[in-house]
What does this fold into?
Amino acid sequence: MLKWFRRIILFLLPGAIVNLAVAWGLTFKATDFNGEMSVFRSHPDNPTWIGCSIRRFGVEQLVVWDHPPAPDWINSPVMTRQWSIVRDRPPTAMGSTISEDDFWIEYAHGWPWLSMVGRLRIDENIIEESTWAVPATQSNVFNADDRLVPLHPIWPGFIINTICFGMAGWFVFGAPFAIRRLLRSRQGSCLICGYPRGTSPVCTECGAPLSNSSAAPAARC
It folds into this structure.
């Protein structure tokens, strides 16, 4: 049981590290945001978030406001993201008072699935609050080209990406050794050094224990 647990950790840990590296690396990939943009509202009735979604490779940016929608937004499609603030009713639904200059920006990063998210609250171009995020710049004045490093996992995407990168790593680094061990087992050789095995319980070439599951010996060690 412990052996299998170690194998799973060795399989998933590199995948998680690569997953984080990809998500955080996308923070600094580019400063332009010329991806596909769509406007939306979060709920079919008021109070509702209004905002826009901008997507490009490995990144989705949401810019949302907690204000009554303008007439031309009334017919915009309803959109929610489980990782976003828009999944719940805006603060006005609970009687909170929000400045008309406040808006929220969320960055979700990851590939092939979005796996990390962070959020900023902006008031008159001043960063008032950062949630699950570290701004890539030290200034508290928001600029449209600013980026942030997201810190909160989007669990479905994080798990899927970790498994994908873990499998890719295994195919690159683990599969050749597994195939070699399989061929040596079928040939009746030592799984470690490939020396023909005999009746000895250990390999007389390298001293490794010989598995009883190996094929019949090709020659005496």
User: Anything to note?
Assistant: The longest strand covers residues 102-109. DSSP finds two helices and nine strands in the chain.
